[in-house]
């Protein structure tokens, strides 16, 4: 019996007749599950991945909020919500993996495509509605509230100081070539972190990972992958949009909901730099701690070079 079959039967009372691998994301695997007339989507986080603890630690905190938003706003059908197990949990796990099960959505991620005008309008309505929720939501939000800490920076700084024999050759070469640039970004993000901690900033619910691979076109446009849900300044989402050709149109609609909103440049720069450094750290973690093929290593070094390209 397939290990997924046993898990699905035991935890969800779902009896698969077909399990098909789908294109997963950067940090998880994906499977389409057919069980009688029902179809499901299984998201699988592998426990041996360096990224998994961070992405799964707050499932029990963020999923109830996502479900509540889906039921208490005009975002119904715009946000996928994991199903509960027979015991009432939003996730289950075994020795190797952590699982989330969803009703299957027949759609396609936007990915490398540009947004159409209609999709831009839909996205603006979705994010404006999301940002209408703040600290008043009926859930504990302590673990999800932005504190402007950047704990991964300490680990990244350590690796930047490692001698050559302690890191893979390809990684050492990359870090050596880009150390000055990365250190400058670290200094800037630390300064902004200190400044923003004492600033009076409005916090709203933010997705915090609004790239086009997390947008899906089905009957409607959906925003998927809510692991990063946070109570944060709106710039935590705006950082993904400001350089897009559709940003002006997006803001025209967004400001119908949030008339007094103006971008805080310090917060925007903080999130842009933090994201760049966080991506560098996560790729570095992969090279340091995961067993990778030569092809995977070359691909990751390519991503790292893109992140440190001066034009980005």
Automatic annotation (TrEMBL):
Residues 24-244 form the Aminoglycoside phosphotransferase domain. It holds the Pfam family APH. InterPro entries: Aminoglycoside_PTrfase (IPR002575), Kinase-like_dom_sf (IPR011009). SUPFAM superfamilies: Protein kinase-like (PK-like). Transmembrane segments: none annotated. This is Aminoglycoside phosphotransferase domain-containing protein.
């Amino acid at each position: 019996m397939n290990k997924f079959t046993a898990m699905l039967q035991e935890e969800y009372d779902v009896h698969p007749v077909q399990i098909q691998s789908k294109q997963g994301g950067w940090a998880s695997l994906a499977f389409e599950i057919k069980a009688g007339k029902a179809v499901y989507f299984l998201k699988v986080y592998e426990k041996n991945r360096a990224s998994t603890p961070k992405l799964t630690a707050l499932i029990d905190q963020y999923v109830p909020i996502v479900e509540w938003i889906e039921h208490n706003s005009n975002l119904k059908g715009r946000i996928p919500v994991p199903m509960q197990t027979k015991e009432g949990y939003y996730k289950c796990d075994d020795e190797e993996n952590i699982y989330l099960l969803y009703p299957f959505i027949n759609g396609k991620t936007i990915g490398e495509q540009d947004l159409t005008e209609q999709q831009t309008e839909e996205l603006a309505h979705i994010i404006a509605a999301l940002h209408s929720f703040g600290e008043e939501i009926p859930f504990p939000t302590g673990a999800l509230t932005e504190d402007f800490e950047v704990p991964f920076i300490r680990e990244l700084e350590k690796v930047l100081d490692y001698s050559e024999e302690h890191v893979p050759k390809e990684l050492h070469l990359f870090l050596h070539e880009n150390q000055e640039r990365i250190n400058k970004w670290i200094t800037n993000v630390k300064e902004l972190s200190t400044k923003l901690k004492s600033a009076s900033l409005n916090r709203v619910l933010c997705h915090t990972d609004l790239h086009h691979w997390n947008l899906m076109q089905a009957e409607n446009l959906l925003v998927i992958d809510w692991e990063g849900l946070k109570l944060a300044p709106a710039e935590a989402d705006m950082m993904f949009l400001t350089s897009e050709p559709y940003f002006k149109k997006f803001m025209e609609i967004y400001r119908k909901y949030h008339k007094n909103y103006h971008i805080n440049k310090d917060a925007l720069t903080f999130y842009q730099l933090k994201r760049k450094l966080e991506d560098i750290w996560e790729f570095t973690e992969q090279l340091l701690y995961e067993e990778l093929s030569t092809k995977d290593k070359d691909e990751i070094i390519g991503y790292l070079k893109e992140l440190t390209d001066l034009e980005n």
